[in-house]
Every structure is written in C-alpha cells, then in structure tokens.
Design a protein that fits this description.
heterodimer; A: alpha/beta; 8-stranded mixed β-sheet; 3-stranded antiparallel β-sheet; 13 helices; B: mainly alpha; disordered C terminus
C-alpha cells in the first residue's frame, strides 16, 4: 500500500507538470485577446541586453501566462470560487445588486503626481478658455463613475470612492485665477437622482444614452440650450447581449446589457462626420456594425478617435470645441441640434499640442463655445491632459 | 524565479528533474549547481556574480582553514575566518544596509550624503548566512572542509532554499552532498510537501494578502481603527502562509533531490508564550543567531546582566536582518524585551494560566509585532499608524470594516484553522480511514490542490513572495 500511495503521489505531480508543460508548448499562440481587449505578449526574442536587464525574463513570464490556454475559463473559475468564499468584490469589481457589476476605485489606484498634474493643467486650460470665449460659452463637465452614481446598487456597507475632491480642487484653482468655479458642472448629484433608471450599463463602465440624456439636460439648463422632455424621444433597442468592460474583468455572466438609442421623434438634425481630417466620412453618428461586435459601445461614433468634426444642419453659426473621453460619444447626439460644428478632441490619441489643434480648427470654423467633458475616473488616470497645459497663452 | 510561477512549474522544474534523473550520479551536483545558477540568474542576471563570489571565497577559506590546521598553524585559520566574515558581511553591509546607514547618519547629523540606491540582490541575506555557517563550523572543527568545489557550490546555490530559506547549515547536508540516495519514499514525500506549500502560498497567502494590500492603501478618510487592525490580522496570516508555504516548497523540493532540510516552522500560531513562538517561527534563523551570535557572546553562562545584553544584541540584529529600516529593528527589540520579561517573570505566571489565556496573550503580542513589521518604507503611511492607535479618520468601527470582515470571513476562518495542527491531524485520520483507497484519496487531494493553485496562478499574473526583499 505504501508503495502504491507513493507512486500515486509522484505520478500525479509529475503528470500534472508534464501535462501542462506540453500543453503550453504545443497550444497555438494568439496575438490578441478579445475577452481582455488587449494584445497578448508573444514569444520574446533572445537578446543579451534584454537578459541582462531582466526584461527578457519578465516578457517570457508574461508570454507564458498570456498564452496559457483557457485563460477566461480560469478567471471564471476563480471568480466563482471567490464568490463561494463570500467575496463581493473580485479583481476590482463589485458584484452588486440587480446584476450590476461595478468597478471599485480607491485613491491608491492613481498616481498622485499625475492626478495633481491633470488637475492643474485642466484648471489652467478652462480658465484661459473662459477668458477667451466668455464664461457663458465655457463649461467643464464631470461625469461620475458608476460607483458614485449607482450607489444604490453597491453591496451593503460599501461606500463609493468619493471623487468630489477633484471638483473642489479644480474649483478652487479656478476661483483663485479669477475665472470662478461656476464654470464647472459636476453631474454626480444629477446622475444619482436618476439611479433607479438604466443610466449606466450593468456590465460596462460607461453611462447609457439615457444617462447621457440626463447629463445633457443639466448642461442645457446651465448653458441656456434647448431642453427636450424625455417623452420627445423614441427609444430603440439597437443591440442586446452586450457584455462590456466590467464583465471582462471577472468573466461573470449575469444579465446582459442592451444598447438603447434615443432619437427625437420630431426628427434628428442631419450630420456629416469627418474622422481625423478626412480618414473617413460618415453621414450618421452610429456604427451599425457594432451590433455584431464584442464592444457594442462602439455603436456610438465607432469608438475613440483623436479628432472628429461633425457638421450639422443646426445652421446657427456656433462651433463647439468638445474635449472628451469615451463618455461623450453618446452625449454628442444631443448636441447636434445646438451647434453647427462640433470638434471632438480625444487627448489620449492626440499628438499635437492643444494650441496647434485649436489653430487648425479656428482656421476652418472659429470656435464659439468650449465644453470639456471628463469622467472622473478616466480623468485621474489620463495621460494626455497635460497637452492642454502647453496650449498657447497668447490671443 | 519564484516557485509559484508558471515558468518554474512548467519549464524549469520538469526540465531539471528530467536531466537530473537521467544523468549518471557523478554529474548530479553539477546539474544542481548549474540549474541553481540559472534559477538565480533568471531574477538577478548581473548580481548572480556576487553569489558566485561568495561561494568561491568561502570554498577557499574553508580549504585554507583545513590546510592551516593540518600544518599546525593557529593564526592563519583565524585570518581566513575573518576574511570570510568580512567578505560576506561586507556584501550584506554594502548591498543591503548602506543606504540605511547613510540616511540614519543624515538624520542624526543633518548631513546630506547622497544615497547609493543599490538594488538589493535577491536572497543575499540567506546565502551569506549559509556560507558563513560553513566557514564558522569548519573553523570550530565541527565539519571537515569540502574538497569538491562543485559539491560545495551546489550547497551554496541550491535552488530549493536559495531565495527564502530555510537557512540550511552546512553540517545538515554535508553527508548528503556527496552521498545521497534518491528514492521513491523521499521523492513522493517531497512532492506532497511541495503541493501543500504551493497551496498555502497561492490559495491562502495571496488571498489574505490582497485584503492587507487594500487596507494598507487606504488613506485617512477611509480608515477606521477596526479596519486598520483587520489589515494587521490579514498580514499576520499572509506572512505565515507565505513564508511557511515557501519553506514547505523548499523542503519538498529538497526531498525530490534527496536532501533532508530541517523544519523551519512548527505551527507557531499555536504558541502559548513568546518564548515558545520563537522556537516555532523561522526556526533556522533563530538557530543561526543562537549558534553564531548568542553562544559566542557567552549566552547565559556569564551572569544574568550579560545574558540580558546578549539577548538585546541578538534581537537587535534579528530585527535588522529582516530589513534595512528602523521599523524592523523596532520589531526585533520589541521581541527582545518581551523575551527578557518572560524569562524574568512571565513564563512562570503563564504556566499557571489556562492554555487559552496564554495563547490569547501570545497572539495579541504577535499581531501587535506584525503591525510594526508591516510598516516598511513602502507601506508606511502615517494614516495607517494613526488608525491603529485609535486616531483614524473614520472612527473606531465603520461600514468598510464590516464589509471587509464579512466578505473575507470564510477565508480568515480557513487561515486561522489552517495555521493550527488540526488540518494535519484530520488529514492523517482521513488517510488512515481510507483503507484500500488511500492512494485514491491522496491522488484526488493532490490533483484538486494543484488545479486550484493553477487556477489562481493563471488568473493572477504576478505574485512575488513577501520575503523577497531579503
């Protein structure tokens, strides 16, 4: 018996390591993971400098884990195991009420220097825009992250990450510079007041078009634009079975999301959309193919591009400079009736300094209004915000 | 390289095992030496030369002491020993403690000497102590110098215990270096031990470690006192399962190659006094300091006052060994003081208390100790300390604490039970009751542990050991 036990022990172990050694050697390698939405590390090349610095070793280890077959299966298994143990947050995601998956944030997630740098650059830029175009034509809009807005769906005893300090800091910088913090529109309370409605996706960090509608309402009230009642909109479900970014983190399939499109029953303005100075041109704001892709949020403007120019049939001579992140993609449809030209700039993909970009825009259609719209969470970790700081101080 | 990684489990280990067991016996030490160099260089491609230097130095010093003694010379052995001491302790002083010395001097004198910012070579605290144990034991005549350089180098670099111990004294494995008999019994027990260690590290240590990491990152407005202490409790479990799990893997791997290392942990959290705790925690380190510092200083054979001084010195050094930072020294001195108090007064009183009370006392002391220990420069946040001392930004107890406690309760209970000897006892009983199905029970148990560990490893891409800064 003893020999049997010992043999089994040895065989199970050896079998295990040999089996997975062979599997990891033989399994086909992939370049890209759809589930994780990122490029997967491929086999690193043997290179002396890489070995000396340790980079080869790190890359090789990343390569082994990235290429390990069935990663999603293991993540799913781990998630289910963690839930069995009673955990309500896994891999940085809260499994909330009503099948809401909500990303967890804490101050420690961000680099303090970058946050401070972004706050300063933003306040600086907004102040300059307000003095150039007038406070009535300038707005800094902050969109809360899902944990703040959908507090009601968080697990019991969990508090959201309070991002009001960003608003306060930017506000006090604007007060000190003479501009005044009233150019800031913090949508947090507004979004919270609607959180019994489907204003954020359950499985994605973005707000829904419904949520963007409420954001537009607050913006319109502040800037004196046309307010449309909710009843004026037709709601069409354009996509279902949407499992977004938050789902990807834990691979836990609960109720899927739907992409609902809001259009004015009376008719939407016509648009011409130009991407990156002519790389592509559309006559609609929506990418209907996205319905069959994995990231269905790209239905709105096809995802993120450095520069998008929208010409509308608004005919009022107003040109809006919209400095944005992905949240604005489903907000812009509500703006097409208010501005003849909308220039959307995504700093994460921009290569030029803001001054250069603005010069180019002004040469085409002089800017009359400026809206900077950021989601708190993405703003704190964003890298391109400092492009704002180097904007030309003249003019 | 780390044991609990895909590259170790599915590339390094299978290849080394195959080559080792296919090779004729006379090449086996060479194979161990070369693969250990590879293992170490994987994480330290440049500073691997320090370890090679240490091996060469102590090989020749050992030879020198032996030759000098045979020639009747008593002065030379002392010189060789001194060279070895300076060489090894010098490496430590420079690579581990130089910035500690510099910044302390700066703090005290107001000078502004620039820090060297030298990277700490992995495992330097372990292998220098190991090679020193060789030279000192040779000097003391307790072992014969090892003539075979490959065998000696294999001892120094042996990958199972190279990076985080146990600190294996040369005489423990002296015979096995040249004459070991690999067999099924050792191999299978090694394999089983390795799996247990892997599970402890990957399934338990990493889980409670996440709780600690999350709490340690909170700032003042988010921390209540209870949350901060919960973080320390999480750390208490993390460091035990991490370190003892690693030792289990080291001992298991050693067995796979025919070596028998001594136990490094004996369920320390079952202790009923601090004195007992230090007989059960990181045993190889305690033994090292006793043999090579406490006893040479006179131990308890030179009067009580001297004994207290000796204890103070040993614990100061023990604290410092754990890290080049004052919180570790504080931790060491904390234990030194407690051990003296126990020796003087408390041990007798503890023996008259019910076991549960003595055990509770010990665990309170140990947890408070870990509070000091977990404040390395990286983790130290004034906010955290304030919260521990009942001055947190969020009061004594808050919703966050309840949330973290409840959602991790099962894991904490598993960790608490797992740190006792109950699982082993229950396991043995189940094993005995399995009659003719023993091999199936064991096989299934191991397979489940391995698959669960693999699941965790694949889903987390990165998991270093806590003790890696040593």
């Amino acid at each position: 018996m003893k020999k049997k036990v010992r043999s089994v022990q040895s065989l199970v172990f050896l079998g295990f390591i040999l089996l997975f050694t062979i599997i990891t050697l033989v399994a086909p390698k992939k370049d890209f993971s759809v589930a994780e939405n990122r490029a997967l590390t491929t086999r690193p090349e043997l290179d002396l400098d890489g070995i000396k610095s340790g980079e080869f070793q790190n890359d090789y280890e990343d390569y082994l884990s990235d290429q390990f077959p069935g990663r999603e299966f293991f993540v799913n298994l781990k998630t289910r195991g963690s839930r069995l143990l009673g955990k309500k947050d896994i891999n940085g995601v809260y499994v909330g009420k009503d099948d809401y998956l909500i990303e967890k944030h804490a101050y420690g997630d961000y680099e303090e220097e970058r946050v401070e740098g972004n706050i300063t650059a933003l306040a600086d830029f907004v102040g300059r825009m307000a003095s150039r175009y007038g406070k009535d034509h300038t707005c800094l809009m902050f969109v809360p992250a899902k944990d703040m807005a959908m507090e009601n769906k968080l697990p019991v005893f969990v508090k959201p990450f309070d991002t009001s300090f960003v608003t306060e800091k930017v506000g006090s910088l604007l007060d000190n510079s003479g501009c005044g913090s009233d150019v800031i529109l913090d949508l947090t309370e507004g979004m919270k007041s609607h959180n019994s409605e489907y204003i954020y996706y359950r499985t994605d960090h973005h707000w829904t078009m419904r949520g963007a509608y409420y954001g537009y309402c607050d913006y319109a009230m502040k800037m004196g634009l046309t307010l449309h009642a909710a009843s004026e909109y037709d709601i069409t479900e354009v996509a279902k079975d949407f499992y977004g970014t938050t789902f990807d983190k834990i691979q836990l399939k609960k109720e899927a999301d739907t992409i609902d499109l809001l259009t004015l029953a009376a008719g939407e303005p016509s648009v011409t959309v130009d991407f990156d100075n002519g790389k592509d041109t559309w006559n609609t704001l929506y990418k209907t193919d996205a319905v069959n892709e994995k990231d269905k949020y790209t239905y709105f403007l096809g995802g993120n591009t450095a520069k998008i120019h929208i010409s509308t049939s608004a005919g009022n001579g107003k040109t809006l400079l919209l400095i944005k992140d992905s949240f604005s993609n489903c907000l812009v449809p509500f703006l097409t009736g208010e501005y003849e030209h909308i220039y959307m700039i995504d700093l994460r993909y921009s290569k030029d300094m803001m001054s250069v970009t603005m010069d180019a825009i002004n040469a085409e259609h002089p800017i009359t209004d400026v809206l900077v719209c950021f989601n708190f969470e993405k703003f704190m970790e964003a890298t391109g915000v400092t492009l704002l700081r180097e904007a030309d101080a003249l003019q | 390289m780390v044991f609990s990684s895909l590259v170790f489990l599915f590339r390094f280990l299978p290849i080394v095992l195959i080559i080792y067991y296919l090779a004729p016996k006379q090449f086996r030490n060479l194979i161990l030496f070369l693969s250990s160099i590879f293992f170490y260089a994987w994480g330290e491609p440049i500073l691997v030369c320090l370890m090679i230097f240490s091996s060469i130095l102590d090989y020749f010093m050992g030879q020198g002491i032996g030759a000098a003694r045979r020639a009747g010379n008593e002065g030379l052995p002392k010189i060789f020993l001194t060279i070895s001491l300076i060489g090894n302790l010098g490496l430590l002083a420079v690579f581990k403690y130089s910035d500690f010395f510099i910044s302390s001097i700066n703090a005290v004198t107001g000078a502004d000497i620039k820090l060297l910012n030298l990277a700490l070579p992995i495992g330097i605290s372990f292998y220098t102590f190991q090679t020193l144990s060789y030279t000192i034991d040779v000097y003391r005549g307790q072992v014969k110098p090892q003539k075979d350089f490959i065998a000696f180098a294999a001892y120094v670099t042996l990958f199972p215990q190279l990076i985080a111990g146990p600190i294996v004294r040369y005489k423990t494995v002296a015979r096995e270096l040249r004459r070991r008999k690999e067999n099924l019994r050792d191999f299978s027990s090694g394999v089983f031990r390795f799996v247990i260690g892997l599970s402890k590290k990957v399934l338990i240590a990493n889980s409670v470690g996440e709780v600690f990491k999350e709490i340690a990152a909170m700032n003042s407005s988010e921390l209540s006192t209870m949350t901060a202490w919960l973080g320390v409790v999480a750390f208490t479990f993390q460091i035990y399962f991490d370190f003892s799990g690693y030792s289990d893997m080291a001992i298991g791997l050693g067995r796979m190659f025919g070596f028998h290392f001594l136990e490094n942990f004996e369920h320390p959290y079952e202790s009923c006094s601090v004195t007992e705790f230090w007989r059960r925690w990181h045993i190889s380190l305690g033994t090292w300091f006793k043999e090579y510092v406490y006893i040479p200083l006179g131990g308890n054979r030179m009067g009580f006052k001297r004994q207290v001084i000796n204890i103070a010195i040993v614990w100061f050094l023990t604290g410092m060994w754990h890290g080049a930072s004052w919180n570790f020294v504080l931790w060491g001195v904390y234990y030194g003081i407690l051990l003296v108090i126990e020796k003087l007064v408390l041990l007798d009183k503890l023996e008259n208390l019910p076991r549960a009370a003595a055990h509770a006392y010990t665990m309170v002391i140990v947890v408070i100790g870990w509070a000091f220990f977990s404040f390395s420069d990286v983790m130290f946040k004034g906010d955290f300390l304030k919260a521990l001392l009942f001055r947190g930004g969020n009061g004594f107890c808050d919703g966050t604490f309840i949330y973290i406690l409840l959602t991790n309760l099962v894991m904490f209970v598993i960790a608490a039970i797992g740190s006792t000897s109950y699982p082993a006892m229950i396991g043995k009983r189940v094993f005995l009751m399995s009659g003719k199905k023993k091999h199936i029970v064991v096989g299934v148990f191991m397979a489940v542990c391995l698959m669960l560990s693999l699941t965790s490893l694949v889903s987390d891409t990165y998991n270093p050991f806590l003790y890696f800064r040593f």
